């Protein structure tokens, strides 16, 4: 079930590529996100399309919740990457600040977060985030 209002044929993460060529390749396991920002975008897209398996797989084991339930009435409408620090090929830590826009029961909202990512064994993982 898709819970995103992105333009048909484009990826919900906001990049101008089709879902399958963008975040879909990470969701299927065909590739791993090479940067913290791309992992952030792919996780946003996983929320948008309801892929809890991907969200759990890309969540660091130390901070991963035992259960993950998505709000069925929440529709993700737009992602804005506000800033990024680190999170590239030869680093092991990264921070991505973003604003994720949504509607829930017809009311608009924004999740503003500074997310921390770590790279272990060459794979980026979401560690935690601080909401503003």
UniProtKB/TrEMBL annotation:
SUPFAM superfamilies: NTF2-like. Residues 35-129 form the YchJ-like middle NTF2-like domain. InterPro entries: NTF2-like_dom_sf, YchJ-like, YchJ-like_M. Pfam families: YchJ_M-like. Gene3D superfamilies: 3.10.450.50. Coiled coil: none annotated. Belongs to the UPF0225 family. This is UPF0225 protein ACFQ34_24720. The lineage of its organism: Bacteria, Bacillati, Actinomycetota, Actinomycetes, Pseudonocardiales.
